[in-house]
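Good morning N.,

You mentioned wanting to compare the apo and holo forms, so I went ahead and generated the holo version with heme C. This is what I fed in:
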Amino acid sequence: MRGIAISLLASVFICVTSSTSLAGVNEGKQVFLDKGCTNCHTVTAQGIESKKMMDAPDLSTVGTKHDGDFLLKFLRKKIDLNGKKHQKKFKGSKADFMKLQKWLLSLK
Ligand code: HEC
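and this is what came out, ligand included:
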């Protein structure tokens, strides 16, 4: 009896944790849309169009190019990419940034 209860609990736990991490990723997509990243960037793999304010790279595979630490510094305009700072400084809470970062890193 006890074994069954424990394995039941374990599977409930796994379900809950995996669904919240997925939700976290989708929240990151929402931050991306809310913060005006689509003024310049497309993410064609996700069907995200841009307003083409500038010729910016498509971010469909950005998760294969950079790590989280780079994204944090680059999007806060602390470091350069190809000798330039990013066009737009990320303005928002740390919590929002973490969601955004998680989503960007999932784009592979
Ligand atoms: C005003 C236009 C503009 C906006 C708005 C903008 N970006 Fe960018 N972004 C660029 C340009 C241009 C580059 C290319 C920089 C370079 O290669 O020097 C770039 C590069 C990047 C890169 C690196 C891409 C690569 O292939 O290495 C990431 C990641 C990125 N942007 C994320 C974002 C996020 C997230 C937002 C929203 C918070 C955002 N950008 C908003 C113009 C913009």
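Residues 2-106 form a domain with the Cytochrome Bc1 Complex; Chain D, domain 2 fold (CATH 1.10.760.10).

Happy to go through it together on a call whenever suits you.

Best,
F.
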